[in-house]
Amino acid sequence: MTTNMVFNEHDLEKAAQLVAESMLDSLPPKAACDHTFSDGFLAKMEKLINRQRQRQTWHKMIRFAAAIIITVSLIFGAVMVASPTARAAVVQWVRETYENSMIYRFFSEPSEDTLPLYRLGWIPEGFEATDVFYDQELYRALYLNDKTEQGFVFEYYYMVNGTASMVIPREDCILEHTEINGNPADYYQELDDANTNVLMFFDEEKNICFSITATLDKDSIFTIAEHIILGKSTK
Amino acid sequence: MIIYLQMIEGDENKQRFAALYETYRGLMFYVANKLLQNTHDAEDAVHQAFISLAENFSKIDEIECPQTRTYVVLIVERKAIDILRKRNRQSEVSINEAVHGIEIPLPGDHGLADAMAGLPGHSREILLLRYYNGYTTKEIAAAFGVSYAAMKKQLTRAKNALRVKLEEGDMISDNEYGFQRT
Lengths: 235, 182
Description:
The complex is a heterodimer of chains A (235) and B (182). Chain A has one domain (50-230). Helices cover 22% and strands 35% of the residues of chain A. Chain A has three helices and 13 strands. A seven-stranded antiparallel β-sheet of chain A has the order 5-6-7-12-11-10-9, with helices on both faces. In chain A, strands 1-8-3-2 form a four-stranded antiparallel β-sheet, with no helix packed on it. In chain A, strand 11 (197-203) and strand 12 form a beta hairpin. Chain A is extended and about 60 Å long. Mean pLDDT of chain A is 78; it is low at 60-68 and 73-89. Chain B has two domains: 1-101, RNA polymerase sigma factor, region 2, helix turn helix motif (Rna Polymerase Sigma Factor, Chain: A, Orthogonal Bundle), CATH 1.10.1740; 104-182, Orthogonal Bundle (Arc Repressor Mutant, subunit A), CATH 1.10.10.10. Helices cover 68% and strands 0% of the residues of chain B. Chain B contains ten helices and no strands. Chain B has helices spanning 2-8, 13-36, 39-55, 66-87, 95-98, 112-117, 121-131, 137-144, 148-168, 174-177. In chain B, helix 2 runs antiparallel to helix 3 (39-55), helix 3 (39-55) packs across helix 4 and helix 8 crosses helix 9 (148-168). Chain B is globular. Classes of the chains: A alpha+beta (235), B mainly alpha (182). The interface between A and B is large, with 67 and 74 residues.
C-alpha cells in the first residue's frame, strides 16, 4: 500500500468532530428509540447494576481493611535513600521496612514487551471475575462471590525501576517468608480471615511481581497463586 | 490498589451508571438492531456494551453530552460488529475490516471528514474515540478489551485506511482536501 496523503493530528481532530456531529445528527431522538426489552435482558442488566453496588461494598472492605497493598511510583530519596549496592543490576527487588509499612522497591529496566496475560487456573467455587483492568504496565482483576460477598484482587506488574509496592499491615498481622512455585513470596496473615490477607511473590525470571489481596484463608490464596498460568485473559 | 479504587470511588457511581443505562439503552438498541436485524442479538450487543461501559466507567464525565452519546454508540456498534463477526466465522474476509457499521451521512467537506465517515466501522470507531473523544491508545485498548500493542497497530492501520480512502476519492482536487500532498 503506497500513499502520499499527509494529514496531521489537528486535521484528524477537525475531521472527527465533523464525523461525530454527522453521526449524532443522523440518530433518532430518545423518544423514537423506544423498545420493550426482554425479561432476560432486564434481569441481566439488573444484575450488572447491582454488581456496581457490590463493587462499592468491596471497595469499602478494602479501604478499611487491616492490610492494604498500594503500588506507587516513588521518587528515590523521597522516602529513603536506596543503597548503590541494592540498585545493582542483579537485584530486581528489595524489601524494606518503613515505619509501619513494608515497601518493595523495584530496580529492573522497563520491559519493551507488552505485559503477558496470565489467567487463574483455579479459583474458589462461587467466585467470578467482575472487573478487569489491563494495560501495558499492570493487570488487575477483581473476583467476587455473590453469595458470601467475599472477594479477592489478583494483580501483577513489571518490577520496573522507580516503582514500589507498599503493604500496610496491622500490628498483629503475621508475615511469613515463603515460596510459590519456587519463587520468593511474602504472606501477610491477619488474625481474622474476614480481613484482607495479602500474598506477594516475585517471578524474577519474568521480572513480574504478583499479588493476591483477599478475604480468603491461606490455603485458598496459595492454591490460587500456584495455579496462575500463562494464557488468555480471564476477562 | 490506587488505580482500582479510583475507578470505583464515589457513592453516586451506581446512580450514575443507572442514569447512563436509562438514557442510552434505547438508542443503543436502535444502533445494534440496525446492524444485526435481530432483536435477541441486538439486546445481547447492548448488554455486552454496558459491561464494557461499566468496566471503563471512569472515562465518562457527564452522562448527557455529545461525547458520551458518541462513546456509547461506538461501543455498542463495536459489540454488534463482534456478533456479526461470530455469525460470519467461516468468512475468509476479516469482518473487522469489511463491515461498515452504521451508516453515517457524509459531513460534506469533500475531504478528510468524508473519507473518515466512509471507513469501515472498526477503523472509524478507533479514530473517533482517539480524535473526537480524546482517549489515549491505552484507554481505547481497555474499552475494546485488547492489549495496548494491538490497539497501537490498529490505530496505525486505521490511519492508513484513511489515507487509502482519500486516494480513492482522487476526483477531488488537492486544494479541496485542504492539506498537502507530498
